[in-house]
UniProtKB/TrEMBL annotation:
InterPro entries: AFP_Neu5c_C_sf (IPR036732), Aldolase_TIM (IPR013785), NeuB/NeuA (IPR020007), PseI-like (IPR051690), PseI/NeuA/B-like_N (IPR013132), SAF (IPR013974), SAF_AFP_Neu5Ac (IPR006190), SAF_PseI/NeuA/NeuB (IPR057736). Pfam families: NeuB (PF03102), SAF (PF08666). Keywords: Transferase. Its EC number is 2.5.1.56. Gene3D superfamilies: Aldolase class I (3.20.20.70), Antifreeze-like/N-acetylneuraminic acid synthase C-terminal domain (3.90.1210.10). The keyword Lipid metabolism does not apply. The keyword Coiled coil does not apply. GO terms for biological process: carbohydrate biosynthetic process. It comes from Sporolactobacillus shoreae. GO terms for molecular function: N-acetylneuraminate synthase activity; N-acylneuraminate-9-phosphate synthase activity. Residues 282-338 form the AFP-like domain. This is N-acetylneuraminate synthase.
């Protein structure tokens, strides 16, 4: 799923289409234009996802007002035909279609469409029956771990691996919308990698673009970030999402960071060669010297440019005599020495 030094970037359209397939298509266009590798939606039936009395989360109340989750989610469902339209449009635009299933029926729907891999939500990390059902499809899984402790992640990983599917990537996440910087705990992503020896990434709910960029620098192989056409639109997730120009800026920054990784070999870069010749120093005569004079630390100096003998070889120069007169600041070379 990941090329060398290429972070897999998911534009999380989620439910920011507000139940309208044409808005969803515009989100696909925006994700493609921004340079994302995949655009992700959410697949669910409200009847299978929540009870009719399930309360809204605090952030959902602040963005959508009072009421219950059922009514809110029912208005955000996409039909099977909508999914086909969106998957076909993604194929046409050459961007990967991805959706998070929230129930068994939704997994079956995505299987009919022929999705290449799955993304699961933080809310379902402890829903091991659903995780196992998805894992049995035999496809790669990207698993968000918001709200979880390490033991809960371990149980989830075990439930998936017991099906014979070990194609698992773990995303660190903080499930608050938006997430305050002090709650990001980005080092927990490293903890996940060390604990499970699986590919890791980061699903971001902060308001800016800095944390996903930092996550890539720390080794994230996958980045997920919410996308909206307009943060002022009605709906639960728009305010904690990026608008298209912001997503494009984030992705450009990540691609720049990737280029900076290099091969890890410490060496002088070709672009440094000119600077090297003028910035480094050579051993030079501190003042005019006569043929036969012995070179010492008192009659030598170290000055730019670096086209003579390097100061690192001073022990090969001192206490040797010169074979001709040398002018002040003249660079010492080995052919001047007895």
């Amino acid at each position: 799923m990941r090329e060398p030094h290429h972070t897999f970037i998911i534009a999380e359209a989620g439910v920011n289409h507000n139940g309208d397939v044409n808005t969803a298509i515009r989100l696909i266009d925006a994700a493609k234009e921004a340079g994302a590798d995949a655009v992700k939606f959410q697949t669910f039936k409200a009847e299978n996802l929540v009870t009719r009395e399930a309360p809204k989360a605090k952030y959902q109340k602040s963005t959508t007002g009072s009421g219950n989750q059922f009514d809110m989610l029912k208005a955000l469902e996409l039909s099977f035909n909508d999914h086909l339209i969106l998957e076909n449009y993604c194929d046409e635009k050459k961007i990967k279609f991805l959706s998070t299933p929230f129930d068994f029926e939704s997994v079956d729907l995505l299987e009919k469409i022929g999705v290449e891999f799955y993304k699961t939500s933080s809310g379902d990390l402890t829903n091991t029956p659903l995780l196992a059902y998805i894992a049995k499809q035999g496809k790669p899984m990207i698993v968000s771990t918001g709200m979880a402790n390490l033991g809960e992640v371990e149980s989830a990983v075990e439930a998936m691996k017991q099906t014979g599917n070990d194609q698992i990537s773990l995303l660190h996440c903080t499930s608050n919308y938006p997430t305050a910087m002090e709650d990001v705990n980005l080092n927990a992503m490293i903890t996940l990698r060390n604990a499970f020896m699986l590919p890791i990434g980061y699903s971001d709910h902060t308001l800016g673009i800095e944390v996903p960029i930092a996550a890539v620098a720390l080794g994230a192989e996958i980045i997920e970030k919410h996308l909206t056409l307009d943060k002022k639109m009605e709906g639960p997730d728009h305010q904690a999402s990026l608008e298209p120009n912001e997503l494009k800026k984030m992705i450009k920054s990540i691609r720049n960071i990737e280029q900076s990784f290099g091969d890890g070999i410490k060496s002088c870069q070709t672009s440094e060669e000119n600077t090297k010749s003028v910035a480094r120093k050579s051993i030079v005569a501190r003042y005019d010297l006569k043929k036969g004079d012995k070179l010492t630390l008192s009659n030598l100096d170290f000055k730019r440019p670096g086209s003579g003998v390097s100061p690192r070889y001073i022990n090969l120069v001192i206490n040797r005599r010169i074979v001709r007169d040398i002018k002040q600041d003249e660079r010492i070379t080995f052919d001047l020495l007895e």
